[in-house]
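Trying the structure run again after the queue cleared.
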Amino acid sequence: MTRVWLPPALLAAYAVAFGWRALGGGLLVFDDHPGQLYRLAHAITLGPAPWRFNPGWWAGYAELQYYPPGFAWLGALLHLVAGGTLDLAGVYQVLLWLAWLLPGVATYLLLRRALGDPWLALPGAFIALTLSAGCRSGVEEGLRWGLVAARLGWGALPLLAWSLLRWADGAARPPLASAVLVAAVTLLHPAHAPSAAVLVILAAVHAGPRRRRLGQAAVILAAGLGLAAVWLLPLLAHLRMALPLAWADMTPATLGWRLVSQPIVLALGVLSGVTWWRPARAPASRARWLLGLAPAMVLVVALDLLIAQPLGLAWLPADRLMDGLYLGLVLAGGTAVAALATALERPVVAALLALAVSVPLAWGPGEPGLTLWPREREWPREREVVRGLRMDAVWEAIRQAPPGRVLFLRSAAPLDWRPEWWRPHTHLPALTPLRSGRSIIGGTFTHPAPVAGLVYTGSAAHRPLTRLAEQRDGQSLFGRPLEALDAETFDRLTRRLGIGLVVALEEDVARSRFLTDNQSVRRLPRIGPWSLFVTGAAVAEPVSVGFQRWRVSVPATRTGWVSLPIAYSPLWVARAAGARLPMRRDDLGLLEVALPGPASAVDVEHRPGAAEWAGVALSLLAAAALGLWWRERRRG
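Done. C-alpha cells:
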C-alpha cells in the first residue's frame, strides 16, 4: 500500500515552495494589500469592536463596521496570543500564509475523508490551492491583488463541508462546529454566506427525514448568523452609511464567458457532468451530496443577477457569489477523479494523471486558470516600491507640512508605464496615516464611505459606485473632469473637508488648473514622481482628546447649524460647553451640529448605540445557546 503521508507531503512541499517565493522577502504591497494592512492596524490599535471610528481615511469612518472584520479580528487575536512579539508586518505575513494555504489544506481534508483515499484527495486540493480563473478568491485576486478576506472565507467553506460529513451520512444531530463555521464565513466575507447556507441545506436533505433535518439546518444557520450579529446587525441597521460597490461588469454573458473561457473551469464542468450522469463510478455516497453545490450556486447567481440586482439590491454582487460555484466545480472535479480511479482500479495513477492533465489547462485569458508559480516582478515588496516611488520622502514632507488632511488625487500609484487603468499598481498611499501620522482623503481602493462617494462622483448620496477608483485616476475629482474643476469649487470643498495638503502625480499636474492657476495654492519642491501643494485654507482638523473623542474648533461668531470637518455617523454624540447638541448629516457627508450660541469648540464622541448593543446581546445569546446545547449533548 502506498504510504498515506506521501500525497499531503507533496502538496505541502509545493505550497511551501510557492509561498516562500511569493510571500517571502518583505511585506507585499501590490494593489489592495496596503489597505488590508491598514484595517489590521485598526483592529490592533483601536480594538475589535466594529463601531470604533477611525479618523485616518475619508474624514473618518467606522472601518470595520462596513467591511467584513474577520480578517482583521483574526490578526488582532494573533497579535494578542503572540504577546506583542509579532509586529504589524509580521502578523500580516502570517495571515497571508494562512490565506494562501487554507483553500488547499481544507479541500484536502474534506476530500480525504469523503473519498477515503489520500491520493484521490490530492488533485482537488491542488486545484483549490492554485485556482485563479477570474475567481475573486483565487490566487491572482484573492492573494496577489489583496482580496485576502474573500480568500480566507472561501477557504473556510471546505472546512464547513468537512464538519457536515457525518451528518450528511445520516447522523442524527448536526455538529455544533458547523454553526461556528457559518459565523466565521460570514465575518470573513458575507458574499460566501449563501454558499455556506447551501452546504448546510445539501447536507440536511442528503439522508434521513428531510423535514426534521431541514429544521436542524435552520437552527444551525440561525445560530451562525446569531454569532455574527455583533457585526451583522449594526451593519444592517446603518446600511445607508455604506455605498454599494457595484462596479463589476455583470451580465449573464460576461459571467458565462468567465467560465467557458477558462480551460480548467470548463474541464471541471465537464467532469462534474460526467459524475452526475455516471453515479455508479462515484467512490462512495459520502461525496455525492457535494455535487449539488455547483448547480445550486448557478441558481443562486441567476437569482441575484436577474432579480435582486435589477431591484437595486447590490450588496451581494453576482461575481462574488460565483466563488461558491467555482468551489462546487472543484469538489465535483475531485469526485470525478475518484470515479476514474474506480474504473482504473489504480488511485495513484488516476491522481497523477489528473495532476498532469491540469498543467496544460492552466492558461487562460486575462489571468491564468491555475497560478502554478509566482513571477517575482508580479509580487512587489514594500521596500522596493517605497524606494522606487520615493514614498519615504513624501511621508517625511507630509509630516513637516502645515496642518490639515492630505488629499491624494489618485487612489493608486502605477508600477509600470502602461496607460491603461488596470496596469499594475499599488495603493501604498493608504498607509500614510500609519507612516506619517496624518489623515488622508483618496489614496485608497474603491471605498464605501459617503465622503469617498463625494470624491468619486461629486455626491455623498447613498447610491451604488459603478466604476472602480482606479478607473477615475487621472480623469476626475469630485465628480468633475480634472480640466473642468475650477479653483473656486476646489477651494470650497477642500476648506470644508479640512484639507491642507494635496499630493498629485506629476503626470496629472498639467491638467489640474485648479492647482496650477490657483492663487491660494503654494507648490512645494517635487519628490520623485510626486508634486505637493499646500492649500490656502485655514484648516482646523479635529484633535483627539481621549479614546474615541475629538475636539473641533469652530468660529466663535457662528450659531445655528455648523458643518464640522469630520464624517457624519449616527453614533456621534456632540457637546459644546457641556450641552448636548442636535446633529445631522450635511450635503458632503460631514457632521453638522446646531449651536445655540457662540462656542469656540465642539466635542464629539463616538459611542455604540441600540443596534450595536443589540448585536452584542444577540451574539452572546447565540453563544450561550450553543454552549447549553453542547452541554446537554455531553450529558446525553
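The chain has a mean pLDDT of 91. Worth checking whether this holds up in the mutant runs.
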